Amino acid sequence: MRPPRRTGSAMDQAEAAFKAATSKPVEAPAKAKSVPEGKEMVTLRLDRAVLEHFQDDGPGWQDRINAALRAAAGLSEG
Length: 78
What we know:
Elements: H1 10-22, H2 48-55, H3 61-73
């Protein structure tokens, strides 16, 4: 049985082998990242009594105001 015939020149084969060994593997396309819901800084005028009500419980009063506004707007907690 005869060995298979080479196709292409030795230079072409060497270049193909080098390229295969040094090329970066093809990466899958990056998954689209979902944008997390962020918070936005705003200026809001509140009655002093409302502000004091939320601040009386200490740190976290801004989060409590946000939660109360979400509930009043019928939005789910997130």
